[in-house]
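Preliminary data (for renewal application), pyridoxal-5'-phosphate complex.
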Amino acid sequence: MATTIPAPTTLGASIRRDFPILQQENERGQRLSFLDSAASSQKPQVVIDAVSSYYAEENANIHRGVYTLSERATARYEEARQEVASFINAASPKECIFTRNTTEAINLVAQSWGRANVRNGDLIVITEMDHHSNIVPWQLLAEAVGAEIAAVGISDDGRLDLESLNRLLAREPKVVAFPHVSNALGTVNPAAEIIRRAKQAGATVLVDSAQGTPHLPVDVRALGADFLAFSGHKVLAPMGSGVLWGRLDLLQAMPPFLGGGGMIRKVEIGRSTWADVPARFEAGTPAVGDAVGLGAALRYLTRLDMAAVSAHEEALTRYALERLAELPGVTVFGPPAGEDHAGVISFTVEEIHPHDVASVLNGENVAVRAGHHCCQPLMARLGVVATTRASFSVYSDRDDVDRLAEAIMKAQRIFAA
Ligand code: PLP
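Predicted structure:
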């Protein structure tokens, strides 16, 4: 039986009680405003408990044991896969491969599907707003097979330029890979429309949903893509858990990515044959405890309701954009408030380096990230080397936003002195 998850408290302020790490204060008695959830979210007690009771009561290596504990561990692992399938509305749990993270999931597609299908001279389309994880794996593939890479441009307000997409689609690319939501700008891309156009042009489509799955309801069948990747650690689950979803017919035709135990049907000294999916892509001992934690996190989010999560974060983002707009010298990147701006806000403060802003904020117990956010081509397009980024999750509230704005003002006072 899967662990029973108590109903979470409501979104925003009172939900903070579900997250033990948020109960801490700094030496000045200030609460922790954790505004770096786009990098990795915090974990509710139910997830910590699910992992802990897995190790306390059920831990064993899976699939190979004929003893009870191993069977129980296997059942927990496969229940977690079922949970993933339900969360993203996959047609079958077999379509859901456990990986370590989004990065591994995209590399799996680029190396396995890519090497089997992409040829010398083919075009691979990515975007100017991609995370390095959706750039470098395609570069490695392109170098290996002699393919070309081109990027869809963006507008000055941080939206994908769909005319530029159309121009690239006219060249009939083999692959289109794009971010569901930008980790540096918060832009929610029109995924269904991009997929529709890319499929019409004959491309195979991968959605990097590392920032989509934490913020939006995701329905892979409605989206119509071929592959979708996300990281467990950004959806309240343990680090080390990630997912590649792929269309079953595509996965079944793909060669393995990594070789070893668990992914074979038969091994002889000279050759081997492969297990069916998903085992074919899960070589070696998997991170069972992390998968169990991922299952618990997705049940928790399902109870919260992803539509409510999305609405909560959109309202909070709107409020944050209003607050930051009141601050002279603060420049916010990305689209204006609205449905296509998820809970990620990148900004610069005139005359203050983004790292110095983050450092003053840290002194106020407001945790944000500063840097290029693994988006160097995007930073180059925006004409900056770095930004400061505040990002939200289910536990973020207006108090966090107020504390962010006040801490920015404090940084401005310190650096004006
Ligand atoms: N893609 C996007 C849009 C991201 O934001 C991230 C992480 O921040 C990744 C990919 C890579 O995720 P991971 O480091 O979990 O592999």
